Fold each of these.
Amino acid sequence: MSKHGALIVGGGLAGQRCAETLRRRGYDGAVRMVCAEPDPPYDRPPLSKELLASEAGEDSLAYRPAWWYEDKQVELLLGTRAEALDPAARTVRLDSGAELAYDELLIATGGAARRLPFLAGFENVHYLRTLEDARRLRAKLRSGARLAVVGAGFIGQEVAATARRLGAEVTMIEALEAPLAPILGAELGRWFAELHAVEGVRVLTGAMLESGVGRNGRLERLALADGTAVDCDAAVVGVGTRPATEWLAGSGLDEHGVPTDACGRSALPHVYAAGDASIPFDPRFGLHARTEHWDAAAWQGAAAATAMLGGQPGTPPLPSFWSDQYDLRIQYVGHARQADGVAIEGSPSERDFEATFSRDGVPVAGLAVGRPRAIPKLKKRIEAGHRLAARSAEEVAA
Ligand code: FAD
């Protein structure tokens, strides 16, 4: 019988899956979740999609109804932040000053949006990570509003697509020559730029944002290094996320994201990490990589619970991701950064194609646009190519 139980810091997807798996596998110790936000654990992908267009979906956002937490005896400490970890004492200090002891700890504090310091202080500059962020941004997205989207990653692109659907005038500002080029390559990056341009977004690539100009705490204009000015009623910044792990400073764990083995074990005994806060080992590719994807966070949260109970979670699935833009479903699987070539099949101009990324002729990643059935096939091909190459973290380190 456990004394202090399992402590989960972070009430997002990975934390939720950890709690569910502990109970499903018969864990009878206390399970507590420390949740910085006031809302019980909820799903984030709709925040840049349907929920940005309408508040109608808010009721179905929670992973579980309130009674589930009571029934499963999972205690939620809402609106509470973890501030420090003392692994020797096996305690976590909260912002209230209270200390919680644990037998097993999961770090699942997710990611935080990277901020642009020179846009601080403007009330109409938005970041999108939480339900509250989505509510604030939604209030600005009316027809005819001028929205500047800074950063053309997947979140920036989804916001641009949703805003266009609502009739906003959207300018997308991207520092790279083509969106997502470091991951997908310039050719596919240009395809994404074109997708948005055709839908009426003003797409500025190779565009270095230099400053923001405004009055009375409101941003009115963004100035680019080449002299271009972008007038706006609101701006949303999507320039990536960082692991929300600064609270681990001084604990012996890296405060820039927690490296783990494939099951979520950190370098400290009884301390696990999962989801966007973690940098798990991928045994197929022999590398540690942050994934920042829904599927990975769900699997890792459940895997950490299994490992806490002495079980073997198995091989992690390939990293995979989806994005909904306009009427398109875009799916991605694998590690395209590992590729040295890409082959495209289908018709990019008709928004119906798949891309296979390879290294030395072996598939390492795939992208499917408007082809939901292509991904399982691409997964199989990537897995077939990498099953034999699987190496342990120790082998890679040696
Ligand atoms: P989170 O879900 O971020 O949960 C972490 C929780 O920890 C948060 O509630 C946070 O407030 C809390 N927390 C942080 N610090 C502390 C602290 N010190 N103490 C206590 N609590 C703390 N992925 C896809 O695959 N497809 C998509 O289409 C997609 N769309 C997305 C759209 C948006 C707008 C966002 C933000 C993400 C999207 N993702 C998508 C990514 C996916 O949602 C994340 O990968 C996933 O939510 C990560 O889960 P997590 O549990 O690691 O972190």
Amino acid sequence: MEKKNIFSKIICREISADILYQDDLITAFRDINPKAPTHILIVTNTLIPTNNDVTENDETTLGRFFIVAAKIARKENIDKTGYRLIVNCNHHGGQEIYHFHMHLLGGKPLGPIII
Ligand code: AMP
């Protein structure tokens, strides 16, 4: 059987995390090593390793990422000041966990994207 990655373990509550939202398609929880005052990860409930593995079948799931990101941003009170949504893909994109996820970062000015 395939070994579960850390996000899969969080989704099925095998390991703990500060889960803010969960439905049939996605789960959102606080990043354990926040890079901004608000740093939340939104992840797919089923394993999609990277953005390269996304297909037409995932349209509803990926649409929901943005809807839930906007809802969480409002709840965290960062919607007016603004925030950044990031998806890292593979090694050059800085992806560490190979389970599709979006970072929601805010709570301070993040400045331009610096490479
Ligand atoms: P990425 O580099 O895009 O793959 O991002 C992976 C993110 O997962 C990093 O920001 C980590 O801090 C975060 N992370 C790793 N393990 C955990 C965990 N157990 N709970 C919450 N966030 C985690």
